[in-house]
Amino acid sequence: MTALGLTLLIPLFGILLLGGIGHWRCAGGVNLVISILTFSTALFMAIDVFQHGPILSAGKLFYIDAFNVYLILLNAFVGMTTAVFSGPYMAHEVEIGRVDDGRMRLYYSMYQGFLFTMLVALSTNNLGVLWVSIEGATLATVLLVSRYRTRESIEAGWKYFIICGVGISQALFGTILVYFAAEKTLSGQEEGLLWTVLQEHAGQMDSGVMALAFVFLLVGYGTKVGLVPLHNWLPDAHSEGPTPMSAILSGLLLNIALYAIVRFKMLVDPALGSHLAGNLMMGFGMLSFSVAGLLLHRQKDVKRMFSYSSIEHMGLMTFAFGIGGPLATFGALLHMIVHSLTKSAIFITVGHAAHVAGSQAISQIRGLIRTQPLVGWGLLIGTCAIAGFPPFGVFTSEFLLFTATIKSYPWLVLPLVVGLTVAFAGLFRNLQPMVYGEPPAGQQPVTANMWPVVVHLGLVLWLGISIPTVLSQWLNQATIMIVGRGVL
Amino acid sequence: MLITALSFPEQLVLTLAALILLSSFLMLAQVRLDSLINVFALQGLLLFAATVLMAFISGKYHLLISAALTLFLKVFFIPGQLRHLVVRLDIHREVEVIGNPSLIMLFAAGLVLFSYYVALPIRALSLLSTRNTIAISLAVVLIGMLIVISRRKAVTQVVGFMSMENGLFFAAVVSTYGMPMVVELGVAFDVLVAAILFGVFFFHIRTEIGSLDTDRLNRLTEVER
Predict the structure, then answer these.
(1) Of A166, A179, A236, Cβ closest to residue B164
(2) Strands A55-56 and A63-64, sheet pairing
(3) Residue B214 is nearest to which of A128, A131, A158, comparing CB atoms?
(4) A7-16, A158-167, B7-16, B44-53 — which is least confidently predicted?
(5) pLDDT digit string, tens, across residues A294-349
(6) Cα-flanking dihedrals φ and ψ of residue A155, to 5°?
(7) Residue B8: count of CB within 10 angstroms of its CB
(8) Which H helix or E strand runs over B205?
């Protein structure tokens, strides 16, 4: 309980503190210390939940169970490792004169603000607060996306703001409909948005209202997940912002929107008694997966390319949650972890690569492995991991998803295999020259801190070779919550 | 069930709902920025009146707090800030060209029909007044979205966006007598922050491209040029 309070209060304090001192030279270090503290309290809380089961806070505003606790831990962890990278990265940006004091304060303050809103979104029990904090996460990051004040970055920021704002309004309408349906079923009105209460009564809620609500929720939060055809903002926002931001946007924010959809699916399924929600998710997931794979081939900007790869993976996860069996759900939960770890590692590496080459254009980045072997190898191994090569964790989770698909919908394996191959080709045709090509004359290595990348990829490798019992038990508990049966 | 069977305050709520929808149509057709902002403030005022009325019908007086928030945000703060910005950016006299206005109006009318088509078959919406008001609030949300899509000026897009928020707020008030207080406050806070950020963006867009036409923000695309 105390650990939960601290996990939320520390980043909140960080917003205020860094809003004041974000331009100091030590701000990167302060940001890191705050993130480490958040991670330690989150770890403490996770152990508590693992030993004693779900926590419901006083006033029922926060609820921690097996499903969200591992995402909270993942969030705090990636927030921490990205903070390791962000300090020197931003110092370099100040050196080359891209940012001034005010923007540094804004950057660090909003870094913590973003982590804070995401932690609230994950830990809250109130579906309305979930919406408020996901919208809050957009607001916290929108000025960071447009931070370089170039024409492209302003465009990216505006698109992000308008498309996500309009999209997520649909989710609020869906939330109101759920509240409306709950009010008809429950007598106490004040509790009609509490997830714990709704879950108990999910079977009794009006199916018509819940079906309509789910459509709005899927469109709304789906915009935030980056599902095609509502994905336009995503590659822009992820490519134009500062790289540490891209790492946490791609690695964490998308997960949280998907988390919201799955939470609602858990309410809608018993109310409807049909597979409508799952079918919708499978459809949108498959579409996003296929389209994003094709668009990987057209990319000229390295960060844009990896953003499309994020859409592809989010599509795959949405598809897997849509299938809905224990195996598919277990695979999707695992995929959330390995994708976050790998993708944030890749963005960190790409950030260094862009500093080496002085550009984000794929055609400008050449011969990394000769100029700076660590960055080159990081990018190569990271991309292998994200493309789903064994022995990395992404392979394990994708293998589970394939197995589940063969069991339930055998003919859908075909588009999945084609999609993965297309995506693989798209990634590697661009990667090859960036890593192995002839480096331009005079290309110098930069000071790079590759520790976060090594740790992330190490973890992904570990998850690919053997999943620790603690984690598999954990994911199994979450699977039981979501679909009623476990895999173990 | 006939509309005359409803109590007088309920009939009044339905009338206000109709007026709110009408104000959405007015916004859709309005080409002058200053008048557009006035219509938006008017919609906020109607929303405020409907919320106060609902508070007295239902006896749920916490709605009065939401009503006060609406009055402050949607009638005074946001329109005031927008007016201030358009005057400072010297675009308050600008007239926006809408491509094919009659088609857009027809489309909006279609959206109203669609909203009724979606909301009517739901059994839980047995009360005549909720059926109507849910359908109307959905229509207001969708027309707000149409404003965002069909217009090119950044200011108009913001007004459309905020008008969507109005529709959502109206839906919450008439169908469930508002959301729980913590959510109401959170949403109000988000709207407030969004309004401030929009202002910041106007200046950035203006500095970068010299006008507030968002169709000139067209560099980032997958289409080959």
Answers:
(1) A166
(2) antiparallel
(3) A158
(4) B7-16
(5) 999 988 999 999 999 999 999 999 999 999 889 999 999 999 999 999 999 999 99
(6) -60, -45
(7) 6
(8) helix B181-209
Q: How far apart are CA B89 and CA B77, in angstroms?
A: 18
Q: How far apart are CA B157 and CA B217, in angstroms?
A: 14
CA dist A266 and A278 (Å) reads 10
Cα separation, A225 vs A234, in Å, equals: 9
Q: What is the amino acid identity at position A241?
A: G
**How many CB atoms are located within 10 Å of the residue A413 CB?**
14
Q: Among A91, A83, A95, which residue's Cα sits nearest to residue A451?
A: A83
Q: What is the pLDDT of residue B124?
A: 63
For every residue of A233-249, DSSP letters joined together read HHHHHHHHS-HHHHHHI
Q: Which residue type sits at B22? A: L
What six digits make up the tokens of A427? 């990634």
Mean pLDDT, residues B128-153 taken together: 88
* Nearest residue to A486 via CA among A471, A467, A473: A473
Q: What is the pLDDT of residue A296?
A: 92
Residue where the block lists tokens 């009146």: B49
What token pair was written down for B100? Answer: 């094919």
* pLDDT surpassing 60 at residue B76: yes
Task: Give B127's contacts (C-beta < 8 A, 6+ positions apart).
Answer: none
How do the residues of chain A divide into helix, strand and coil, expressed in percent and rounded to 5?
Answer: 80, 0, 20
Name the residue among A199, A248, A200 with its Cα closest to residue A35.
A248
**Measured between alpha carbons, how far is A129 from A7 in angstroms, rounded to an integer?**
17
A235: preceding bond cis by omega (within 30 degrees): no
Residue B154 vs residues A137, A241, B80: alpha-carbon distances, Å: 22, 21, 16
Distance CA A288, CA B65 (A): 42
Please, which pLDDT band fits residue B62 given cuts at 50, 70 and 90? Answer: confident
pLDDT tens readout for residues A375-416: 999 999 999 999 999 899 999 999 999 999 999 999 999 999
Does the distance separating the beta carbons of B201 and A146 come in below 8 Å? yes
**What does the alpha-carbon distance between residue A392 and residue A338 come to, in Å, rounded to a whole number?**
9
Contacts (Cβ under 8 Å, ≥6 apart) of A51: none
Nearest-CA distance from A206 to chain B in Å? 7
| DSSP β-bridge partners for residue B95 | B32
Taking only the tens place, the pLDDT of each residue in A285-295 is: 999 999 999 99
d(CA A80, CA A84): 7
Q: Is there a contact between A128 and B189 if contact means CB atoms under 8 Å apart?
A: no
Cβ distance A152 to B220 under 8 Å? yes
Instruction: Give the model confidence (pLDDT) of A106-128 as tens digits.
Output: 899 999 999 999 999 999 999 99
CB contact under 8 A, B161 and A240: no
CB-nearest partner of B217 from A61, A154, A170:
A154
A372-375 long-range CB contacts below 8 Å, 24 or more apart?
A: A372/A445, A372/A446, A372/A448, A374/A448, A374/A450, A375/A349, A375/A445, A375/A448, A375/A450
Which of A132, A189, A198 is the mutation pick for testing B, counting most B CBs within 10 A? A132
